[in-house]
Amino acid sequence: MRETSTDYQHPFRPPPVAALNRLAAMLGRDEGRLDAHAMVRGAEKATGLSDFGPEFDIRPLEKLCESVAAEAHLTPVGLAITRGRLTAILQNRLRAEALFTQHPEILRYEPEAPIIIAGLQRTGTTMLHRLLSADPRLRALAGYEVLDPVPPSSRRTKLLGRDPRLLQAKLAERALAYLAPDFFAIHPVEAESPEEEVMLLDYTFLSTVPEATLRVPSFSSWLEDQDQGPAYRYLRRLLKLLAWKQEGRRFVLKTPHHLEWFDTLLEVFPDAKIVQTHRDPLQTTASFCSMVTHGRGVFSDQVDPLEVGRDWTNKVVRMITRATEARERHDASHFLDVSYYDLMRDPLVQMERIYAFAGQPFDASTRAGIEASHESSPQHRYGKHVYKLESFGLEAEALNARFATYRERFQIPREDRR
To answer: pTM of the entire structure?
Structure first.
């Protein structure tokens, strides 16, 4: 079985991409800079639109661009990909607002009691998300929808024979597999499979997407103290758009981003049912660091795993602390805790618990659908994700001391002692 690389300081680079980077660097193209105002003007020109909707604020994008220029050390190809992603968000937001204006009935829909999976990476969240999405009564967001939540015109779909967003997402999937084949073993990114709504939170440029793939410490530090209200309110707005003409299905969402923002999440989604997953944080921290390091390697030739270990250990501690403190401020009925180990031992038992918690009927057909979904998604189908704390300059006992309160509260075992 193929294993992911642990040579973090030498990211995989296809020879044609490496050559293109060298050529662009010799020509001095862009010098690693992004201009927030130029991207806004470009999006307006490309779409012929100018309304970015409520609470649009260019300052987060400005902060991100400043951090990228000063700290990210992007390759020319990495810079081009980043510019393209940010420009696409701006264009999609303009097109979304135009659609809201043309069809005001979209905004009258209110998503009810979404089931939201919030746990650290590598705690079974992806597995849970995909099992729940197998239920036709529930509605996950597909990869192509988070890349572009604006449905195309029926004319364009008919002309192409399928949703053009799906074609675009398939191309992006193949591009990522070409640029970073190891990444799929860490987090499978598939056009038609369930994907995280953190990509929609990024429509305000207030999400943790940039710091998960780029070295942007000043932006990350700034983001910690920002009001996430605009991001979550715009997420709710985009969910209405995605539910348009498909009402009646309950959303099931998932991203670790929520751990830091339970207060805001419950303010915007007051009836949310939150499933928090738990696993030995020594394992999840190493996995998080590996994911971030591999992600940075797509965009930059300068990757420091020791820096990632230091910064992301602090971030994981902050995520857990903020989540635990926020839970003390809210009614316990909003939360259900699921052990990774119980989930691996018997997924169906945990699914029944989640359905009962969410008030969702669990019948024989539901059970059969979940069993079929579980059997069709074998572990390690893209390879085995390997990682260890030492690669990131971390020591188990010192790190474990930082998680002692969390481990005790949720009765999380030491995985290396099981």
So the answer is: 0.94
